[in-house]
Design a protein that fits this description.
Strand content: 15-25%
Structural class: alpha+beta
Pfam families: Sec_GG, SecD_1st, SecD_SecF_C, SecDF_P1_head
Radius of gyration: 34 Å
Protein name: Multifunctional fusion protein
Largest sheet: 8 strands, antiparallel
Organism: Alteromonas naphthalenivorans
Number of domains: 5
Number of helices: 27
Number of strands: 29
Strand order of the largest sheet: 9-10-2-20-28-23-25-24
Distance between the termini: 48 Å
CATH class of the largest domain: Mainly Alpha
CATH topology of the largest domain: Multidrug efflux transporter AcrB transmembrane fold
CATH superfamily of the largest domain: Multidrug efflux transporter AcrB transmembrane domain
Shape: elongated
Family: Belongs to the SecD/SecF family. SecF subfamily. Belongs to the SecD/SecF family. SecD subfamily.
CATH architecture of the largest domain: Up-down Bundle
Keywords: Cell inner membrane, Cell membrane, Membrane, Protein transport, Translocation, Transmembrane, Transmembrane helix, Transport
Length: 866
């Protein structure tokens, strides 16, 4: 009794902690005022697809960064070579990230190598100027870091140095981006590193990120250069906003990093907006010295390769204060001052992915998500009570606790709830109920054998435990790949499913067992009453001979698979921008008909944009192909002191402006812009995730079962997968990352179904190895038939509301999953059993046993050896 009480106390504490963690999400405002603020504010954050906002993925232009670093080191090297009287001739290299020159005396090669190492020496003792060898020198093998073909030398940066400089640049860029966004007054922007060279920016409530894009796309690197009259390799040309050219010294007279403050003000002399700045102590001393020594010369202030002002220095400028003049508007001057205050980006950033959701669409998504979620959950709970009565009510309590624990864990981790996350919660409930059905069916089997309540509970839970672990673990393999290879919302979906699988193990195996033991503690010697009209009806069905028509079943499955493969080519999958790249807009334009909208776009040279009506009247879906864009998504780069906006590729802002001019009431519900590099990455990762999911589950099943068991299960899942892809192609559902999530969820769900049957086949083979394989397979499928059908029905009850009223955002997940549940259930009953029988008979013909011996059987056989 003491042990039971302690176990109950532990379970109660776990549940209490989970409920306390989830509670702030459901507390009304009136109660939040009476609890500590740190607790009431500890809630799930809503994703941009639920509250509206913008998502920008910024990629660092590493080539520009490497070119700048290489130029710095090579300039230092050449200066050093001149001091050492080592003669050379510099060439124009074909490679943008290489510097090439010829030595007058090849014997100077060793000295050059030594000087290169000294000028590029790093803190760890390595050299930045290293290169792969390209040829053989006159002295033999080319020295590491400098290669010579004849006496021509190439310099590049080492991979180690490149990785280090990118890491440092991204870390510094994160801080600059955060500071810039904070100064704009945005509400809780999220800035995180993604991958090795990208930054993800999420801005809740921002439905038009044009000004933010301009702000983040401007590097704001300010430098001071002296004008020169000598045009050579140590000079370069830059223009001002009016096109006037300046020949400047390459040597930087003063770096903008010395700026400590900047402000936009009106000039008292001209009454025009100007930017004033203040230098730190070191910068002020340098500025005073350089102006003292260069009176009469022109000092150009260069901001992002544009000369914004170039005054003649008439006297010493002490105090470290200066002024930038130009054709600024006050707004532009304020932006320039903000960027100078927050510091320059150490590397140019380009937007390679942009997603925007309007606030109205976000609120609609919350409403439909909550409604479909509640409807699905109620359907599952009512169905469980209808099947198993009071025992179904206990399972429903465990399922409710499971969902609360999932919310609690997500809240504890500070997760963000997205629309795919809501889909994950609904699917989690549908899959978690499988464990409860499996347990109840096992207990029912033991009760039919005449066992009393205590014995039936113990044996039923013991037999179900291994199957639950195997099925959940195989599903977890597929879901974990969603997290590893997915992005954004897909990761949220994966995390939700994974947490749900783990918590369902606790609630189904531990909590349900405890509650059922409590309910039967006074009736340990009496049989459990697990009867209902549905169960009675299910018991009267069968037994069926599922192998009787195995040839027909396999032939029909193969034909459907071949048809699905044909649908893959024609009509083909309707790929979303996630995979094709390009621009997709969902707009509401009440004043524009389809023809009027098409005419307006053609008049402004947007002929390649496809227009599709969807949803309510005057709602349109616009698609611009990837050919309209370059490798980066359009980004407005505001030139300092100019209103000119430079764009790369198709200008999304120009497209929005054209539509707004035609209909001032237009609402941009959703905008997705994906560059080719991102879309190619999504496609590669999706294929890789599917392959690794199959391989991972095959390896696990081979470890847990025999090879022919694993092969039968994986072949069936492959057939289910091809049919589902064919269904997506035939119905024209958009194939995007959410659809890939559905395919990976299908793999997990389908293999879960197959594992239950395989586990029963293995159990029966161990009990009666002398029986025919066909009889055992048929008995296994029939004995798990009610579990298979009930699990499928509960999963469908959870998914159908989402498929019917969940909206476009989750239709590419829910609709294929509904199809997958139906096709997966039928394949479990007919295809897996048929393939296992065929592979098992072949194994028998080779004289091999159906099962490998257990450790106990091996020990017993060894004990008989004299």
């Amino acid at each position: 009794m003491t042990r039971f009480s302690f176990r109950g106390l532990v379970y109660a504490l776990v549940i209490l902690l989970g409920l306390l963690s989830a509670a702030p999400n459901m507390l009304p405002d009136s109660l939040k005022q009476h609890v500590p603020q740190w607790y009431s504010q500890h809630t799930l954050s809503l994703g941009l697809d639920l509250q509206g906002g913008s998502h920008l993925l910024l990629e660092a232009d590493t080539d520009a960064l490497f070119a700048r670093q290489l130029d710095t080191y090579s300039s230092a090297l050449f200066s050093d070579l001149r001091e050492q009287n080592i003669r050379y001739v510099k060439h124009t290299s074909k490679h943008a990230l290489a510097v090439q020159f010829t030595l007058s005396n090849p014997d100077d090669l060793y000295k050059v190598k030594q000087r290169a190492k000294e000028v590029s020496l790093q803190s760890d003792g390595s050299s930045a100027l290293l290169i792969t060898k390209q040829g053989i020198t006159q002295q033999g093998t080319a020295p590491k870091g400098i290669s010579q073909k004849g006496n021509v030398i190439d310099l590049t940066l080492t991979e180690k140095y490149q990785a280090a400089v990118v890491k440092d640049a991204i870390n510094r860029s994160l801080e600059v981006v955060r500071k810039r966004l904070d100064e704009t007054g945005l509400t809780e922007p999220s800035v995180t590193r993604q991958g090795s060279d990208a930054i993800l920016v999420q801005m809740p409530g921002i439905s038009d990120p044009a000004s933010v894009k301009a702000l983040l796309g401007t590097t704001a690197q300010m430098r001071f250069h002296w004008q020169t009259q000598v045009k050579n390799s140590e000079s370069f040309t830059r223009a001002d906003i009016n096109g006037r050219q300046y020949l400047l010294e390459k040597h930087v007279a003063l770096e903008g990093e010395h700026i400590t403050d900047a402000a936009a003000v009106f000039s008292p002399e001209t009454s025009q907006p100007v930017v004033t700045f203040r230098l730190d102590n070191d910068g002020a001393r340098q500025f005073a010295t350089m102006t003292k020594n260069n009176i009469g010369r022109v000092l150009a202030v260069v901001l992002d390769d544009t000369v914004v002002t170039a005054p003649v220095i008439n006297s010493v400028i002490p105090g470290g204060r200066g002024e930038i003049t130009g054709s600024f508007t006050m707004s532009e001057a304020q932006d320039v001052a903000l960027m100078l205050r927050t510091g320059a980006l150490p590397v140019p950033l380009h937007i390679i992915e942009e997603r925007t959701v309007g606030p109205d669409l976000g609120s609609d998504a919350i409403e439909t998500g909550v409604k479909s979620g509640i409807a699905g959950a109620l359907g599952v709970l009512v169905f469980m009570v209808g099947i198993y009565g009071r025992w179904g009510a206990i399972a429903s309590v465990a399922l409710t606790v499971n969902m609360a624990l999932v919310f609690g864990v997500l809240t504890l981790f500070g997760a963000t709830l997205t629309l795919p996350g809501i889909a994950g919660l609904i699917l989690t409930m549908g899959m978690a109920v499988d464990a409860n059905i499996l347990i109840n069916e096992r207990i029912r089997e033991e009760t039919k054998k005449g066992r009393p309540a205590g014995s039936a509970l113990k044996i039923g839970f013991d037999k179900a435990f291994g199957t639950i672990v195997d099925s959940n673990f195989t599903t977890l393999i597929a879901v974990s790949l969603l997290f590893v290879f997915g992005s954004g919302p897909v990761k949220g979906f994966a995390v939700t499913i994974a947490i749900g699988l783990i918590t369902s193990l606790f609630t189904s195996v531990a909590l349900t067992k405890l509650l059922m033991q409590r309910a039967t503690r006074k009736h340990q010697r009496e049989p459990i009453n697990l009867s209902s009209p549905l169960l009675t009806m299910a018991d009267k069905l069968g037994p069926f001979n599922f192998l009787k028509s195995k040839k027909i079943a396999l032939s029909v499955s193969l034909i459907l698979t071949l048809c699905s493969m044909a649908f893959f080519f024609k009509p083909g999958l309707q790929y979303g921008v996630d995979f094709t790249g390009g621009t997709m807009m969902e707009i509401s334009a009440p004043q524009l008909s389809t023809e009027q909208l098409r005419t307006v776009l053609k008049q402004h040279h947007f002929e390649d944009i496809a227009i599709q009506e969807y949803g309510a009247e005057n709602q349109y879906l616009l698609r611009a192909p990837v050919s309209e864009q370059s490798n980066t998504v359009p980004i407005a780069e505001a030139n300092a002191g100019s209103s000119t906006v430079a764009t790369q590729g198709s200008n999304i802002e120009a497209l929005k402006q054209v539509i707004q001019d035609a209909d001032s009431t237009v609402i941009f519900n959703k905008v997705d812009v994906v560059g080719p590099k991102v879309s190619d990455g999504f496609a590669d990762l999706s294929i890789l995730a599917l392959l690794i999911a199959g391989g991972g589950m095959l390896a696990y099943l081979w470890f847990q079962f025999e090879a022919h068991f694993a092969t039968a299960a994986l072949l069936t899942v492959l057939l289910d997968l091809t049919k589902t892809i064919g269904f997506i192609a035939l119905t024209g559902i958009e194939f995007n990352l959410t659809a890939v999530a559905a395919l990976l969820a299908l793999i997990g769900y389908s293999i879960n179904d197959k594992v239950v049957v395989l586990d029963r086949v293995r159990e029966l083979l161990r009990i009666s190895p002398e029986r025919s394989l066909a009889d055992i397979i048929n008995e296994a499928v029939n004995s798990t038939l009610s579990r298979t059908v009930f699990t499928s029905l509960t999963t469908l009850l959870a998914l159908l509301p989402m498929a019917l009223v969940g909206g476009d955002a989750v239709s590419s997940f829910a609709v294929p999953m509904v199809f997958a549940v139906v096709i997966g259930t039928s394949s479990t009953l007919f295809i897996t059993s048929s393939l296992l029988h065929m592979l098992g008979k072949r194994r028998e013909q080779k004289g091999k046993a159906q099962l490998r011996p257990t450790s106990e059987e091996v020990k017993a056989s060894l004990a008989h050896i004299p």
